[in-house]
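[step 3/7] fold_predict: job queued, chain A
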Amino acid sequence: MEIFDFENYKDFTNNWVHSQPKKGRGIYRKMALHIGVNPVIISQVLNGDRHFSAEQTLEVTEFLGLGPLSPTIIL
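[step 4/7] structure written:
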C-alpha cells in the first residue's frame, strides 16, 4: 500500500489504521494523543466532512511515519 494508490488522505489513513494489528483498535486514541486532540475529532475527520488543520496534518503524517517527499529535479 502506497499513499499514491489513494485519491484522498482519509481513505489512505483509514486503510492504514485498519491494516494495523487488531484492525487498528485504539489507533484513533493514540493518534489523538499524539496530535493533542480529543479522539472524537479524529473520528469526525476520518469518517465525516471535517478536515485536519495544517498543523494537525503535519502531526498525523509524523504519527503515520510518513517523511517529507523529496522533490525530483530534472535537468
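[step 5/7] annotate
The helical segments are 9-18, 27-35, 39-47, 54-64.
The two ends are 30 Å apart (CA to CA).
exit 0
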